[in-house]
Specification:
The chain has helices spanning 17-58, 77-94, 131-174; strands at 3-7, 10-14, 106-108, 126-128. The model has no long low-confidence stretch (mean pLDDT 89). It is built from three helices and four strands, in the order ββααββα. The chain has one domain. A hairpin with a 2-residue loop joins β1 (3-7) and β2 (10-14). The protein is mainly alpha-helical.
């Protein structure tokens, strides 16, 4: 049971020694767990950044001269975004401004002179629209680049969260009673 002492206008509370010891153990456990989780999160965030950087570097991609960030190796989130944007721009140029779902699935087959090939009934022979395949490739590439950007964002979140957890752990460690404090350094 806590006792209350009055000193002037201040009221202070003293806990019995067993309650102080229990409180200090709980604070120490919470502090150590926060520090462990924080350090693990920081390590995971650093690993995520390094891994994503190395994977991007292994591809040896360089942005084209007309990209928002021209002729730069694709490594970080800004160059990944620039490369994804220019892929979409070039694909739209090659498909007359149409996206995958806006293009017909089949188009008339043409011969070398550009004339439609007709079947025995005089109808144009329909073949799969190869221009749609450009969008499949473009979508695959831009999705991979956007996943790289997300990897950087999640790594930054892990780093920030880890640093916050470390600060919480240090704050909890410092809240223990003076007689039970032991330096963690």
């Amino acid at each position: 049971m806590a006792t209350t002492l009055e000193r002037g206008h201040e009221k202070t509370s003293r806990l019995p020694p067993t309650a102080v010891s229990r409180r200090n153990r709980i604070l120490a456990i919470a502090a150590i767990l926060s520090l462990i989780v924080g350090l693990g999160s920081v390590a995971g965030g650093v690993f995520g950044v390094v891994y994503t950087w190395n994977q991007a570097a292994a591809e040896n991609i360089v942005t084209p001269p007309d990209a928002p960030v021209p002729e730069t190796p694709v490594r970080g989130p800004l160059t990944m975004k620039a490369q994804a944007d220019i892929i979409v721009e070039h694909t739209l140029e090659n498909t007359d401004g149409l996206r995958y779902a806006e293009m017909p699935r089949f188009v008339p087959q043409v011969d070398d002179a550009g004339n439609p090939v007709l079947d025995e009934n005089g109808e144009p022979v329909m073949v799969p629209n190869q221009a749609r395949n450009i969008w499949i490739t473009a979508t695959t590439l831009t999705t991979a680049l956007h996943l790289g950007i997300m990897a950087y964002a999640l790594s930054a979140l892990a780093l920030f969260s880890g640093l916050v957890m470390i600060m919480i752990g240090l704050a909890l460690w410092s809240l223990r009673s003076p007689q039970d404090r032991v330096s963690i350094a």
